[in-house]
Amino acid sequence: MKKIDRVLKQLSHLYEFNRRLKTYRMKNKGPAKKRLERDANDRRTSQS
Question: What range defines the domain where residue 20 resides?
């Protein structure tokens, strides 16, 4: 396997990990969850 193939494979894995991380929901309720939700909402509105 060529080096470019390995790099593309690693990037693909990182993309999938990042996608799953963004969709992950915290199970615990509390200030940390509220802060994460607020930050996620801020990011969504700033991208529009």
Answer: 3-47
Q: What is the pLDDT of residue 30?
A: 60
Q: Which of 16, 19, 23 is nearest to 40 (CA)?
A: 23
Q: What is the CA radius of gyration of the chain?
A: 16
Q: How many domains does the chain have?
A: 1
The residues, any chain, with a CB within 8 Å of residue 40's CB and separated by 6 or more, are 22
Residues whose CB falls within 8 Å of the CB of residue 43, separated by 6 or more in sequence, listed in order: none
- Quote the tokens at residue 12: 């693909």
pTM confidence score: 0.46
